[in-house]
Specification:
mainly alpha; 301 residues; Serine Threonine Protein Phosphatase 5, Tetratricopeptide repeat; 7 strands
């Protein structure tokens, strides 16, 4: 797999309290391109980069898609606020950490401020998050221009990813939140049709969980044999689909923890460790069998 692949990853860490993510499947029609799909569902052909990421497609040279192919279409998730939840609580559950950058992003995406809790019963929008594996010679400013259309917002990427410096190392994992990613009316209609097609009584969730069971052995093999970029892509693709059970989430995040450590993506490794702990009933890192780097990534929080 090309290590420059993008993978949408709405980090769904609190499925017991949250509504399913808004992702749905689009079946490619004859002659259809990624740009046309993006224009239809997002109202912007440039959003094809999100589709490339969600489906682990090669971003180089205009990816060819075939009629009948099923594309995962990322969309904002939603959560109904319960009593006592703060923006920091929600950022920790949904975005991996409750630091100020992510807490502010979630609050601002819902026209709130971090120091005023959301109202009980309020439905909030959870922005999609794209996990990007950097290529040669990229900077935070070039990534901000590519995803947000503003090269002057590179500092925000640094803050969100707990890093410093303009240059992004080849293979470095960058998390890019997409709070502006919304569906058009046609996109919402297609999402509703997809839900009816796959069954409104949990059929989509069941399909995702079965897909998780099928892919988890391959994810673990990717990590075992040092295919860390592939592991990151596969793991985040599973997360982006949503509806995984807590045991499945624990396995995915534990694998991502090891892969991110191997790629020297420290902030992402720490976030993966926190997510693993939140889904694993007895999270223990055996000091004999687990490397010091992995233990240090968990202690870094």
């Amino acid at each position: 797999m090309n290590p420059r692949a993008l993978v949408a990853a709405g980090l769904l860490l609190s499925l017991a309290r949250a509504e399913p993510a808004g992702a749905f499947q689009h079946i490619v029609k004859p002659g259809e391109t990624l740009a046309q799909v993006a224009e239809r569902v997002y109202g912007d052909a440039r959003r094809e980069t999100v589709l490339v990421g969600a489906n682990a497609l090669d971003a180089q040279g205009g990816t060819v898609i075939a009629a009948g192919m099923r594309l995962e279409v990322p969309a904002p998730g939603h959560h109904t606020v319960i009593q006592g939840e703060s923006w920091a609580d929600l950022a920790l559950s949904w975005l991996g950490t409750n630091d100020m950058a992510r807490t502010e992003l979630l609050a601002h995406a819902n026209k709130g401020v971090p120091w005023v809790p959301p109202v009980e019963g309020q439905e909030i929008e959870i922005p999609a998050v794209v996990t990007y594996l950097a290529g040669e010679g990229e900077t935070v400013n070039s990534l901000a221009a590519r995803f947000w259309g503003d090269p002057n917002r590179g500092w925000e990427l640094n803050s969100y990813n707990h890093r410093d410096g303009a240059l992004v190392r080849r293979g470095e994992v960058m998390l890019i939140a997409m709070p502006g990613l919304r569906l058009t009316e046609a996109g919402r209609a297609e999402a509703r049709a997809a839900a009816e097609r796959d069954g409104a009584s949990g059929g989509m969730a069941l399909e995702q969980q079965r897909r998780g069971d099928a892919e988890l052995p391959q994810l673990l093999a990717d990590v075992r044999y040092g295919r860390y970029a592939e592991a990151v892509a596969r793991g985040n693709r599973l997360l982006g689909g949503g509806a995984l059970t807590h045991p499945q989430l624990a396995i995915v995040h534990r694998a991502l923890l090891e892969a991110y450590v191997a790629l020297d993506a420290r902030a992402s490794a720490a976030a993966a460790c926190a997510a693993w702990k939140s889904n694993e009933p007895s999270p223990v890192l055996d000091p004999i069998r687990v490397s010091p780097k992995i233990r240090a990534a968990c202690d870094a929080r």
